[in-house]
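Fill in residues.
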């Protein structure tokens, strides 16, 4: 189960996460980090990878639902955001 985000912490946007991950990789490839800094960068990168993978899977599920012309709210999503494209 992913850690709960704090209320004042904004939701990670996919593009921002990719940019941060790329910056971490670049810093690690430069080879100028200490061992502790490298380990911390690796841990952050692994956490970002997991979160970004989750965001992609969520996006894929939404696309599948739209392709099936059905729409139900995601967990925690307000009901008024959901819509249904099926004819009644």
């Amino acid at each position: 189960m992913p850690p709960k985000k704090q209320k004042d912490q904004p939701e990670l946007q996919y593009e921002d996460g990719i940019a941060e991950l790329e910056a971490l990789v670049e810093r690690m490839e430069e080879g100028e980090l200490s061992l502790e800094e490298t380990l911390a960068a690796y841990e952050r990168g692994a956490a970002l990878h997991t979160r970004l993978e989750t965001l992609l899977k969520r996006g894929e599920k939404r696309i599948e639902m739209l392709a099936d012309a059905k729409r139900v709210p995601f967990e925690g999503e307000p009901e008024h955001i959901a819509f249904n494209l099926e004819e009644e």
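The radius of gyration is 18 Å.
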